[in-house]
Amino acid sequence: MNREDFPMLRQDIVYFDNGATTLKPQCVIDKMVDYYSNYTSNIHRGDYEAAIRTNKEYDGVRELVREFIKAQKESEIVFTKGSTEALNMIVFGYFKNILKKGDEVLIDKAEHASNVLPWLILQEEIGIKVSCISLDENYELTVSEVKKSISDKTKVIAISHVSNVVGDIRDVQSIGRICQEKKIYFVVDASQAVSHIPVNVVESNIDFLAFSGHKMMGPTGVGVLYGKYDLLLKMKPLEYGGGMNQFFEEDGTYELKLPPIRFEAGTPPIAEVIGLGEAIRYINQIGVEKIHEHEMKLKKYLIQEMEKIENVILYNKTSESGIVIFNLDRVFSQDTSIYLNHYHIYIRAGNHCTKMLKDDLKIKNTCRISMYVYNTKEDVDRFIEALKNSKDIFKIVI
Amino acid sequence: MNIVEDKELRREIIVDNYQHPMNRGLVEDSTYLKENTNNESCIDNLDMQLKVVNDKIEDIRFDGEACAISTSATSILIRSLIGKDVMTARKILQNYRNMIEEGEYDPELLGELVVYDELSKQPNRIKCALLPYQAICKMLNRLDES
Ligand SMILES: Cc1ncc(COP(=O)(O)O)c(C=O)c1O
């Protein structure tokens, strides 16, 4: 779908690395160039025309994001550098101040480094206990395992909405309900979910949510932290400076502005926020449900064709997203990706920042295909053709 | 025809050393030095062990997950270095590095390692080829210090 909107696709490539970052449509690029070419100015400070326009564009994106994730208030939307920053703000700005020694945080082995390491650091700093919810035989996270893992010490469940390796969609609505009943905080990393499936923070009772703009056709350098407003009021900023304070005096008195501005110290990524807004408009035009349907159709076809090739090992046939992880028998994943690059097919090899998953998968590194709206059946065919020729892989990679 | 000229043969040597590398698997033995080696730009990750007795390389072992180039280079390096005295080993290592980085080197000294003499044409593989080199050098340096 919509291939003509993406300048990168004028090249003769198959782009299968959308889990890492997505391509950008022309309208997003144009929107940012427009800001830089026609109304560059800082926000919240100027009285001149360009500044007024910048304010309007920048602030308008908050409402777009609110509607996009179905939050109740615009003031619950904080702009960040990306998911990583948002997750760090959640852990060190909020939980560091309210969790106590012995409190338990549940994550799982398929979590991205950005939803593991901050918790491990907090474990070291204040003595919380980080435990992993077990994954099932398809490496997926089920509600029953979540239930089983909860103890009276459990204070937080922090999981991704969609895993960036296995691609399973977690039932956040049921998990959110359990959290509500048991008074457990629910933190969701939606990096691989927004722009692939509908996300609803209220229905899923999500306390904090994080995602990145660049994985949803927006620019790099911008992301979103959603927090329930009463929680944001109790969260501490990790950065202090201009824009976020009411006043400060020589005697040390000061007052901070209210959320979300409190958490956006300094000049924010203005062009990027405006670009993110355009990406959301673009996604809304297509419809998230339609994007998901398209990915699923491609995934089914891809799996069906890959299963016909004998030296292919598939790890996540069942998951309901555009992510497929595999290896070629007795070939190191990076050799496979170097080989595919020869055919201008872009995939990713590695542990996909989920270093703990190796215990379950029993292999450290895999090849990952992650498909998106602009991928086609022809892309899949070209990839399959390359795999069929892979007997010659060493002629190409060596 | 010698191996430098025969492309097919070179590839066979590399693939063979990748699929059946020499001395894969570490040993529980405190007389070995140990070093982990990995690089940021790729996902290769190797553990290596070295045993030197009376100034002679008695054994080198490795384990880990790595691409065809680093695994095969590790295997061939191990074969080339075992049995050599430390000075000769250092000379081989330096010549190997020079070859990989397009510098001056003595092919006689490198023997089978010359299968990588054109690797510098693929700049993104240079780090892969130098991975075992780095680990072995680090262990030899540690030996010097002690
Ligand atoms: C599930 C998940 N969480 C978090 C991140 C981190 O996103 P960013 O690097 O944009 O901060 C990623 C990106 O790879 C991801 O896939």
What does this structure look like?
The complex is a heterodimer of chains A (398) and B (146). Chain A is α/β, with parallel strands linked by helices. Chain A has two domains: 133 residues, Aspartate Aminotransferase, domain 1 (Alpha-Beta Complex), CATH 3.90.1150.10; 259 residues, 3-Layer(aba) Sandwich (Aspartate Aminotransferase, domain 2), CATH 3.40.640.10. In chain A, 38% of the residues lie in helices and 16% in strands. Chain A contains 13 helices and 15 strands. Chain A has a seven-stranded mixed β-sheet with strand order 2-8-7-6-5-3-4, sandwiched between helices. Chain A has a four-stranded antiparallel β-sheet with strand order 11-12-15-14, covered by helices on one side. In chain A, strands 1-13 form a two-stranded parallel sheet. In chain A, α1 runs antiparallel to α8 and α2 packs across α8. Chain A is globular and about 75 Å long. The model of chain A has no long low-confidence stretch (mean pLDDT 95). Chain B has 146 residues and is of the alpha+beta class. Chain B has one domain: Sufe protein. Chain: A, CATH 3.90.1010.10. Helices cover 45% and strands 17% of the residues of chain B. Chain B has a three-stranded antiparallel β-sheet, with helices on one face. In chain B, α1 crosses α2. The termini of chain B are far apart. The mean pLDDT of chain B is 91. Classes of the chains: A alpha/beta (398), B alpha+beta (146). At the A-B interface, α10 and α13 of A face α1 and α2 of B. Pyridoxal-5'-phosphate binds next to α3 of chain A.
